[in-house]
# Entry
Amino acid sequence: MPRYYFHLRTAAGLEEDPDGADFPSLDTAKSEASKAAREMLSDRVWNGEALFGDVFEIASEDGTIMATIPFKSVSRSN
# Structure
């Protein structure tokens, strides 16, 4: 099963995912990244923090960026 890494790009820079996770497909990894982004947005709303601008960069084991998930794209109000 392929391993994917959810790197987080913010205004402050890039936070690399050192562990990654195994998913059966890129589509499954994208779905999980979207779910994680929604959860993070929810926490930010609760804490009164900035909502948009962050992006998950989904990378393969060799470091290739396979997809990006902008947090704004997972908001129902976009």
Q: What stands out?
A: The chain has one domain: 3-73. Residues 8 and 56 are 5 Å apart (CA to CA).
